[in-house]
Amino acid sequence: MKKSYFIVLLASLLFVSCAQEFNQVYKSPDYLYKYEYAKELFARGKYNNAITLLQDIVTIQKGKEDGEECLYMLAMAEYSNLDYETAAEYFRKYYQSYPRGTYAELAKFYVGQSLYMSTPEPRLDQSMTMAAITAFQEYLDLFPSASLKEQAQSRLFELQDKLVKKELYSAQLYYNLGPYFGNCLNGGNNYEACIITAQNALKDYPYTSMREDFALLIMKSKFELAQQSVEEKQLERYQDAEDECYGFINEYPDSKDRATAEKFIAKCRKVTKNEEIKMD
What we know:
Radius of gyration: 30 Å
Strand content: under 5%
C-alpha cells in the first residue's frame, strides 16, 4: 500500500513539475528556445503541448530559417493528434507557402491523407470523400514519380469504392421503399428511382466490383415495376423486365441470384405469352 501511494505521489509531483516547466517555456520571449522545446515535445509524442507552442511561434518563424520546418511540424502534430481537418489546412498552407520546400511532396500527400482519415462511412454525406479524391489526384499529377504513389493510388480506389457504396445504399433504399409513395414527388416511383440511380452508378463507375449488386437491383426493380403497372403499361414493362433478366443471366451466369432471374422470366412469360396469343 505504501509503495502504491509513493508511486502515485511521485507521478503527481512529476506532472506538476512538467506543467510548471511548460508554462515557463510558453511565457518565455525566447522563440528559438520555445521552438527547440516544441521539437522535443513532438519527439516525445506530447502533441497537444507541442501544438500550443508551435501555434504561438509559427507566424513569427515565417520567413526565418526554421519557418518551413515549424509549419510542417505543426501540421504533423495536428495529424498525429488526430485532428485531421486542421492538419489538412496546415499541410495545404505549407504547400502554398513552400511549393518547392523540403517537405512539399509529403505535405501534398498528407493533405489527401488527412482528408481521407476524415471521411465518414458511405451512408453519410461524401463531400469530404470528394475532397480527398481531388487532393490525391492533385498529388499524383504534381508528383508523377512520387515516393508514395502506390499508397495514393490505393487510397483513391478505396475512396471511389466509398462513393460507389453510397450510390448502392441509395439504390437499395429506393428498392426497399418500393410501393411507398410518401417520398415521391411529381408522380415519381421508388422502383424507377432505384433503376435510374443504379444505371447512373454503372455509367459513372463502369469497373466497380459492385456491378452485379447494381444489376440485381435493376432487374428486381423492373420486375416489381411491371407487377404494379396499370394495364396499358404492363406488357411493355414485363417485356423490359424479361429482357433485363436474360441480360443478367448472360452477364452473370454463375450468380447466386440466377434462380431469381429465372423465376422472374417464367412470370414475365406468362404475361407476354398470353398477350401474344391474344394478338394471334
